[in-house]
Amino acid sequence: MTDTRSARVVVIGGGFGGLETVSHLKHQPVQILLLDRKNHHTFQPLLYQVATAGLSPAEIAAPLRSIVSKQKNTEVLLAEVTGFDLARKIVHTVDAEIEYDYLVVAAGARHSYFAHDEWEPLAPGLKTVEDALEIRRRVLLAFEEAERQAALHGHHQDITFAIVGGGPTGVELAGTISEVARTSLPRDFRNIDPTHTRVILIEAGPRVLAAFPEDLSASAEQQLHKLGVEVRTSTMVTQILPHEIHMGDVVLPTSVTLWAAGVFASPLGRALSEQVDRAGRVPVQPDLTLPNHPEVFVIGDLATIKNPDGKPVPGVAPAAMQMGRFVAKTISDDLAHRPRTNFVYNDKGNLATIGRNAAVAQFPGFKLTGYFAWLSWLFIHILFLIGFRNRLLVMIEWAWSYLTYKRSARLITDEVGRLREQRSSPDSHNAETPPVEVIERRSA
Amino acid sequence: MTDTRSARVVVIGGGFGGLETVSHLKHQPVQILLLDRKNHHTFQPLLYQVATAGLSPAEIAAPLRSIVSKQKNTEVLLAEVTGFDLARKIVHTVDAEIEYDYLVVAAGARHSYFAHDEWEPLAPGLKTVEDALEIRRRVLLAFEEAERQAALHGHHQDITFAIVGGGPTGVELAGTISEVARTSLPRDFRNIDPTHTRVILIEAGPRVLAAFPEDLSASAEQQLHKLGVEVRTSTMVTQILPHEIHMGDVVLPTSVTLWAAGVFASPLGRALSEQVDRAGRVPVQPDLTLPNHPEVFVIGDLATIKNPDGKPVPGVAPAAMQMGRFVAKTISDDLAHRPRTNFVYNDKGNLATIGRNAAVAQFPGFKLTGYFAWLSWLFIHILFLIGFRNRLLVMIEWAWSYLTYKRSARLITDEVGRLREQRSSPDSHNAETPPVEVIERRSA
Fold it and tell me: What residues of chain A lie within 8 A of the CB of B415, using their CB?
């Protein structure tokens, strides 16, 4: 690296990794350009709260521009990156080429349906605000539809939610949906009993939360049971249809199916490297760069690297943030002619929330389950939320919902026409239909 | 009316009129069924705050079920009403017939494009949460697009918002968008100067806020000028195209056009009566019923009636609420064998907000403009918001935004692919495109 007074750093992706890179370069003599397809950072660990009507999108997402507003060496652009010319040090976007001295690719991952892309419209995953709103809509509509059937026809189909995948996202969705059905909704319905809702969590492996020690997995499973969730481990989902799922020979009728079973890295990974792993992740050098490209960093869920002890660095927010800080430090080292160092992931613990007073937590040296794990989870997540306003509002919303058992964001923001359409054509989930216009107009 | 111990009251529409009817029948021996196409009540007077990124939908909307949760004589159903059989006392919905003893139709109104329905996708109006989110998306994208152009190509097109219609909605949208452009956004953009944003309010009549006295209209126009809005009165919009509007021979290039020029009543009005007026409203008897149908009430924006003094009752929330209470009283009178009375609208005043510290207010006996009008507006609107939690959160949001000049809900919840699409095909606004899926998947 030569000493450039204002090296141009292009960061792709405003998630945990990208934002940490940017903020830790605040005082460096660099020009930073942050590119993202969305105008906001999403605090993904709380997305399940939006999906389960506990929080509003604006409480867990913040405009990237506002976040870096005071950082004078940084610009934000809404742009879609289409590829790279690594030799010429250029990022291709839809309608422009952008030059860089340093490139930091932190484009993350999305769901993977394991060669069953046709399942996506039938079983949405949870990665974006839009995903969360779609899940919220489907979950709430399932209860509305049952109530409608019961009120008009005297009976209704069972309400069954199937959640595929027993990792942290599947566990928190299953636990929270079951909790909402059993505590928030019953008083609001007259013809159905939401406490009879079935929530089934299906995991292909032998236990939920496989990244945790076995005793915490067992505790999580117990806590899920207490919240009313049926857990089926060592069970493979073989088919997803509009209102049923197959697990081998077992067919389960479902109201709503949700997907939390796998992720696949951004296709930008393959634009960077031909060596991506089976999850689309780019293998990086110990300094998180591409081989032969010390100026190109790949971090977060898009990268795969092992710690010196041989354990792979997990695809979690703390790892992405540590990588982001490492990249900022490495660029600073370059600029100061200091030698580079190697990235080491420092595992400070692992938390997973399950529902009210229910969570598991693994810290170096000790473990927690239940209420205290849940309190730790709450505290840490409010602490890391971006923006004082969000922290305050989320605390109020949680206190409110903890004391009253109410979920405040139970809005179905779509037209009921869609409900009708789903009834008549259950496999039309994926069609983004325009709202049905019931009001006719005429010259006035 | 005969003395039915549990007369069945069907209320269509969970707006101001419908909800007041329901809540004032709380202690009557009736069975109430509230039908709505949406699962939530929308506090329409604050929708412009959602459209301008100041509030989140869940802060101004509340699930109908939660609102009537404790009212044991009331059920809520998500349903789309398709018509009536008044002779058989039946409401038709998409897939069921519902019987009633009393029917209260409070289905409201939507935008009217005056025989130019093709303008709707080019100039959205503001009646629902979905409308507000669409306006928010377009307004925020206009700034993002200009910043992108300026950053990548060194220049950008002027940012111009045209708001058609100088009633309360047009005035508050114009004032607030101009205020946001001049106070909230400048610090966040590096390549454009949002304070140069043009906001043009176009009114066909001779003055804005025609329902107010002339001096208040004049004051509103002055306050709009102070906030940077250009007001064009006595100006007819003759054509709306994707990026320009025509006012006779004058052509104005626009970034975003918004529609606040007219409303047309729900088509349910025409299903009830052949005598609807030019705005689709149903003329009702002095007791708000249909002629020859003392059991069928039509209220709110769907009804047209004159006060005893000959002045038409305005289509505002207080009028709808008074009508709702009157209907509840009339049904109670029937049940108690008391004679019916006539509806009289009690005009307690009229407020319109314009922007920060800017509003006009007309109360019986006195008028206010500017800061004190704005304070009254704020106070009254927080007071009438449904739900303690909403009141608290909205107060916090407003205090936050008043002190910091920040807008907290600046989320563009759609994919940037849409931005690209709009650039390449500017007249594709109306196509509800599915989010662009950039992440490819494969077997993992």
Answer: 37-38, 130
From residue B32, give the alpha-carbon distance in Å to each of A64, A187, B12, B42, B98: 47, 17, 11, 20, 12
Residue B391 in contact with partner chain A when CB distance is under 8 A: no
A7-37+79-111+263-335 is classed CATH 3.50.50.60: yes
Q: Which of A376, A285, A298 is nearest to A106 (CA)?
A: A298
**Which pLDDT belongs to residue B414?**
63
Residue B67 near residue B386 (C-beta atoms within 8 A): yes
CATH number of B7-37+79-112+263-335: 3.50.50.60
CATH of B118-260, one of 1.10.630.10, 3.40.190.10, 3.50.50.60, 3.40.50.10730: 3.50.50.60
Inter-chain Cβ pairs, chain A and chain B, closer than 8 A:
237
Q: What is the pLDDT of residue A432?
A: 33
Contact indicator for B84, B103 with CB cutoff of 8 Å: yes
What does pTM read for this prediction?
0.90
DSSP A262-279: -EEE-THHHHH-S---TT
3-state SS class at A398: helix
CA A41, distance to chain mean position in Å, is 12
Strand pairing class (B244-247; B239-241): antiparallel
Return all residues near B418 (Cβ < 8 A) that are at least 6 apart.
Answer: B433, B435, B436
Rounded (5°) CA angle B54-B55-B58: 170
One of A59, A172, A203, A221 is an active-site residue; which one? Answer: A172
Strand order in the sheet with A90-93: A81-85, A90-93, A96-99
Q: How many residues does chain B have?
A: 444
**DSSP-derived secondary structure for A180-204:** IIIIISGGG-SSS-GGG-EEEEE-S
Residue B112 CB contacts under 8 Å (≥ 6 apart), including other chains: A441, A442, A444, B261, B262, B263, B264, B279
The number of beta carbons lying within 10 Å of the beta carbon of residue B96 is 15
For the domain bounded by A117-261+356-416, which CATH number is listed? 3.50.50.100
User: Which among A162, A167, A127 has a CA at the least distance from the CA of A246?
Assistant: A162
Contacts of B251 (CB under 8 A, 6+ apart): B244, B245
- Identify residue A264 by its one-letter amino acid code: F
A172 is catalytic: yes
Count helices and strands in chain A by DSSP H and E runs: 12, 25
Say whether residue B118 is in contact with chain A using an 8 A CB cutoff.
Answer: no
> Distance of CA A185 to CAs A118, A143, B164, Å?
32, 9, 42
Q: Which distant-in-sequence residues (6+ apart) come within 8 Å of B283 by Cβ?
A: B273, B275, B276, B277, B303, B304, B305
The residue in chain B having the minimum alpha-carbon distance to the alpha carbon of residue A278 is B444
**Residue B6's CB: how many other CB atoms inside 10 A?**
11
Instruction: Give the C-alpha separation, B128 to B46, whole Å.
Output: 11
Residues of A in contact with B38 (CB under 8 A): 412, 415-416
For A45-99, how does the pLDDT look when each residue is reduced to its tens digit (9 = 90+)?
999 999 999 999 999 999 999 999 999 999 999 999 999 999 999 999 988 999 9
Compute how many other C-beta atoms are within 10 angstroms of the C-beta atom of residue B252: 17
Read out DSSP for B185-215?
SGGG-SSS-GGG-EEEEE-SSSSSSTTS-HH
- Give the SS3 label for residue A140: helix
Is A264–B444 a contact, with Cβ atoms under 8 angstroms apart?
yes
Please write the tens of the pLDDT for every residue from B72-116. Answer: 999 999 999 999 999 999 999 988 999 999 999 999 999 999 889
What does the alpha-carbon distance between residue A320 and residue A328 come to, in Å, rounded to a whole number?
Answer: 12
Q: Where are the domains of chain B?
A: 7-37+79-112+263-335, 118-260
- The 8 Å CB, 24+ separation contacts for A377-384 are A377/A351, A377/A352, A377/A353, A380/A351, A381/A45, A381/A46, A384/A43, A384/A45, A384/A317
